[in-house]
Amino acid sequence: MKSLGIGCTDIGCIRENNEDMYLIDNHLGLYAVSDGIGGYIGGEIAAVEAVTAVSEYIAKKEAILSEVRAGRMDDIVIEHLAVAAVAAACRAVFRRSVVEPQLRGMGCTLTILLVGRHRAAFAHVGDSRLYLNRRGKSRQLTRDHNMAQVVYGQNYPADSGISAKLLGCALTRSLGRAEVVDIERGMVELQPKDVFVLCSDGVSDHLHSPDELGPLLASDVFTATAERMIEYANDSGGHDNATAVVVRIDGQPGEFRIPDHSAELVPINADAPTLEDVERPGMYH
Fold first, then answer.
1. Which residues, 6+ apart, have CB-to-CB distance to 259 below 8 Å?
2. Are 99 and 26 in contact (CB under 8 A)?
3. SS3 228
4. Which domain holds residue 275?
5. Which CATH number covers residue 187?
6. For the chain, what is the domain count?
7. What's the rounded Cα separation, in Å, for the pair 281 and 5?
8. What is the pLDDT of residues 139-183, one digit of tens each?
């Protein structure tokens, strides 16, 4: 299944540097967002290290991805690849912090999406988020690994008060604090025109519910959607670095084995760029 990603990141209105990092590789169908943990030495370095490790790991598995997309291997394989890539990233961040004492304690979040033939897989650690939008209806696919989620439960409102905001800053899982980490994983049956959003908490903190994604994604120009999300975050205060990667799934209904007839699809401009318009993958921060 073809996928097309577009991304945007911004330092925000308060921070002095950008510790977010994102990856778009349309050829591999690989997308990632990482947020260096603020207040710790090396947050930006941790994010770069994590995303680079994911990119390198999946690139080495390109032959396996080709087998999956040709239908000679089951899509379940990509979930294992996604989890293994995040595990490799955790090792990379931790080992660098051991080798370079000045970086000890550095860490980051990491959320990745890997698109297969009929399904997409995700692997996730921290409080960056992955959303799915189908025909204007959005839902959050990942959980926030922080104390606010522990105390208040999933999908606690962004305006739930100072105590929730403080608890939201206390991560229960992150990359780099140890050599291994508990990785959240999942798979999604794909439909044409599905839209996934990966974002750092600099964006999601301003979303009171997943439903607020709809208007931000309802653009006639697909390439403007990620930038629109960053503008929204900055207009809402811009208290943190803000990063968004928006991924559109292209394909015909006949290419899907298990269509979800109960779901709806989001309309996307037919004139938006295709994979042929994208030459090279990129990592950005």
1. 189, 191, 253
2. no
3. helix
4. 2-284
5. 3.60.40.10
6. 1
7. 10
8. 999 999 977 666 666 555 555 554 445 555 678 999 998 999 999
